[in-house]
């Protein structure tokens, strides 16, 4: 079964785990160079010759693995340090430079063409918060270049400090610092301060939502024009919503992996995973408070058709309260912000994917925003999965139709700002 001829949805609906792996390999091998053999019409597949970059990459990974094994530094940290020294690729159409907004590293992308008026500004917060290797500003080069070119905007990619070297909430603090600095100095970069949009994907969407909330009531700064949240993580109250049940084994973001990454991010022990899945980390008072914002009752029926079973209720565990305190901080769970904050948020573009555990977080946030009169442009990718928009910028075997559609919708929204 050729994966190139089916959708990602069918890919996971119809295949067993073994078949998924086999089919994915077939998609990869379709892109391996094939040459005709000397006998008859028989074809043999050969891998492309190794490039200097692939040789360099292999050597660097080997060095990082060695340093990790001898206990000098973690493999991820070494590879990040190496990749952080790689300068941005040159682009004839763009001016790209690395700066600092106070203490925070940023990479700015500006169109070289002249403009009669000040441009739109996009503050981009990448996903991963450091728990994934390829979550740093260099990994988002294609994303930022594309947005800069297609929307004629100045894009600022924020190189916030990463976990685990820098524990929570250092990531939020850096993003907020960069946002404030950009709003105050926008004109220095040819940007209209009233047309600054904050954008982020995955945990970068979480950070974008949290920064937008932190700026909501600031009277000393220009208002954000809009926020773009691409499949963000938004709450840790209920991890048994329909999307968590339906997509718990769907790559790229599995249900258990979601919580593991979250707990590592806020430096909590993984031994509490089962209690959190049961909801035992939420006190009775918190359940009463949050049930008006986080409840499967607010998920439309069409999103329960694929399967949903109400979860049994478990008693709260007092020993979990202190552990869970930071989980209910709006910086970590923006869906739990107070009403007076939500009511002040800017126009919002919200992207969700059908095959994503975080789908219902987005649906609940959409409802909260609309309940407070915030204009929401909602893009739901019916065949989408977590990470599909990020992968779309790489093309080839990594691009799916859902990701391409999501990118188009984001660009169209930005052009209206």
TrEMBL record:
Coiled coil: none
Occurrences of domain Alpha/beta hydrolase fold-3 (ranges): 122-266, 323-388
InterPro entries hit by this protein: AB_hydrolase_3 (IPR013094), AB_hydrolase_fold (IPR029058), Arylacetamide_deacetylase (IPR017157), GDXG_lipolytic_enzyme (IPR050300)
Signal peptide: none
Alphabetical list of SUPFAM superfamilies matching this protein: alpha/beta-Hydrolases (SSF53474)
Family per similarity comment: Belongs to the 'GDXG' lipolytic enzyme family.
Name of this chain's protein: Alpha/beta hydrolase fold-3 domain-containing protein
Organism annotation: Zosterops lateralis melanops
Taxonomic lineage from the root: Eukaryota, Metazoa, Chordata, Craniata, Vertebrata
């Amino acid at each position: 079964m050729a994966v190139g001829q089916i959708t990602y949805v069918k890919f996971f609906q119809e295949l067993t785990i073994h078949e998924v792996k086999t089919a994915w390999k077939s998609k990869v091998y379709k892109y391996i160079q094939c040459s005709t053999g000397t006998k008859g019409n028989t074809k043999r597949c050969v891998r492309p010759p190794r490039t200097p970059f692939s040789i360099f990459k292999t050597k660097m990974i080997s060095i990082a693995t060695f340093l990790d094994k001898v206990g000098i530094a973690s493999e991820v940290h070494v590879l990040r340090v190496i990749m952080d020294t790689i300068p941005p690729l040159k682009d004839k159409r763009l001016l790209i430079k690395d700066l600092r907004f106070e203490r925070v590293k940023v990479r700015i992308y500006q169109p070289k063409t002249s403009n009669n008026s000040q441009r739109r500004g996009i503050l981009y917060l990448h996903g991963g918060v450091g728990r994934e290797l390829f979550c740093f500003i260099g990994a988002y080069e294609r994303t930022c270049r594309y947005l800069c070119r297609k929307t004629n905007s100045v894009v600022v990619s924020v190189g916030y400090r990463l976990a685990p070297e820098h524990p929570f909430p250092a990531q939020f603090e850096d993003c907020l610092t960069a946002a404030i600095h950009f709003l105050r100095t926008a004109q220095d970069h040819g940007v209209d301060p009233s047309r600054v949009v904050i954008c982020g994907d995955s945990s970068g969407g979480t950070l974008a939502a949290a920064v937008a909330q932190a700026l909501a009531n600031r009277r000393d700064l220009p208002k954000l024009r809009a926020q773009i949240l691409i499949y963000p993580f938004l709450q840790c109250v209920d991890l048994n919503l329909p999307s968590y049940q339906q997509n718990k084994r769907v790559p790229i973001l599995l249900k258990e992996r979601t919580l593991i990454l979250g707990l590592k991010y806020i430096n909590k022990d993984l031994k509490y995973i089962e209690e959190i899945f049961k909801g035992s980390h939420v006190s009775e008072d918190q359940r009463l408070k949050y049930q008006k914002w986080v409840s499967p009752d607010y998920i439309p029926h069409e999103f329960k058709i694929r399967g949903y079973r109400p979860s049994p209720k478990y008693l709260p565990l007092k020993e979990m309260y202190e552990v869970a305190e930071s989980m209910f901080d709006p910086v970590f769970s923006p869906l739990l912000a107070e009403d007076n904050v939500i009511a002040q948020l800017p126009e919002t573009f919200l992207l969700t994917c059908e095959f994503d555990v975080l789908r219902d977080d987005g649906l609940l946030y959409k409802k909260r925003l609309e309940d407070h009169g915030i204009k929401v442009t909602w893009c739901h990718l019916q065949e989408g999965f977590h990470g599909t928009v990020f992968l779309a910028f790489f093309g080839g075997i990594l691009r799916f139709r859902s990701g391409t559609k999501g990118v188009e919708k984001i660009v169209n929204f930005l052009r209206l700002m």
